[in-house]
């Protein structure tokens, strides 16, 4: 009985235009974000190369130097990047506010504003601006030293003042300072990072994490439409009472629907991951590394499957409860909130629906946070089971008593 219902539901999914839109949007999103150019970040570093990329640090001296450099640059152009709602918003200050920022900078550096501007121009004058790499290298190596005797506590107080002037979501808030800063890698750091990518990640593991990072963003939203569409199909077709009279149990009916939609939703994820791993397997071999052929499969199942399970199960539950499409608005809002509530683009998994690791590599850092990711995904798998169980209870109640769970009236059969 269950097997027949499952295959019937799979066929129904394949007849749905929503499903093909789901597949198209997913593939287009991933193909636009990922490309073989990522392998350029996995070339073996050479001594004297000059620039090896950046690495994150929470060292207080580095944080002060980097944040002061950023504040000087933004003040020079009177254009401050803020993220009040997760989206960038450029802020321009008036003369009074700008003077207040310059006063804070002078207090932290012990130098006049004119001296700092001259030093900035001299620094950038040492680098050519012909290529993007040169510009990035110049920006990454630009630092402004704090005055002698400035404590980190005093620095944080001054940055908080600057943040209040600039506005919410600035790079100088207490939360932003807590995330650390990016500093240029040394050759030794770059060589250690490359060795970790080759030995622990076997190249494909590093790119699989980035694949899951981008795929996780879109999969926090797309499965909602599959769940809502399926749950409302019987109502639209006015076949609810016919289905309620089916001899199969509520668990079998709803379980076959959920499992069929889950399998069909995850199938394009698996196929896309299989196709996209090919260039990275080839690149691994060019480096003399035997690639992990199962890396994309392992990361996809561990990272993305619990997310799809939870999103789909919750859409089933809310739609069965309300019998309308409100789940779309609620869950899209949840997905956006999860995406922009993270303190950074790498790690900080916590209990976020969307787990981020927007970098190729940082292998040692990831392995140090794996346990947190496993806990996060385990919680969402458990949430999926709970949401589905409650959806079955709602569905069973309506089926037994002919009731509408949500609405002004509860109507029984025959009334």
Task: Explain what the structure shows.
This protein is mainly alpha-helical and about 425 residues long. It contains 17 helices and four strands. The strands form two sheets. It has a two-stranded antiparallel sheet. A two-stranded antiparallel ribbon has the order 2-3. α3 runs antiparallel to α4 and α11 runs parallel beside α15. About 30% of the residues are buried. Residues about 405-415 have low confidence and may be disordered.
Write the layout of secondary structure elements.
Elements: H1 2-14, H2 17-33, E1 54-57, H3 60-77, E2 80-82, E3 89-91, H4 95-109, H5 113-125, H6 132-141, H7 152-166, H8 174-178, E4 181-184, H9 187-201, H10 204-219, H11 222-236, H12 240-244, H13 250-276, H14 278-286, H15 295-322, H16 326-341, H17 363-401
Antiparallel strand pairs: 1-4, 2-3
Helix pairs in contact: 1-13, 2-10, 2-11, 2-13, 3-4, 4-7, 10-15, 11-13, 11-15, 13-15, 13-17, 15-16, 15-17
